[in-house]
Design brief:
The chain is mainly β and about 70 residues long. It has strands at about 1-5, 10-15, 15-20, 25-30, 40-45, 50-55, 60-65.
């Protein structure tokens, strides 16, 4: 779940929060890799794309000037 007001994404397992991960300003667009290894986050306020390792909750990378995000199955 993206939390645009707090610049984080929240990882849930069922109804339980398992992690809150800081990402760029105003995260709004989210897409998970088909194998659920990475979460791609479009942070519109930062004009950036963040890549989060889903199993560990670690932010791996942030790139500039993202416009949106989409992931298709292999």
């Amino acid at each position: 779940m993206s939390n645009s007001g707090s610049d984080t994404v929240t990882q849930l397992q069922g109804t339980h929060v398992t992690a809150t991960i800081p990402v760029g300003d105003q995260p709004e667009g989210l897409a998970a890799a088909p194998d659920h290894t990475f979460l791609y986050v479009a942070a519109t306020g930062a004009n950036a794309m963040s890549v989060v390792d889903i199993p560990t909750g670690v932010l791996h990378a942030t790139g500039a000037q993202s416009e949106g995000v989409a992931v298709s199955p292999p």
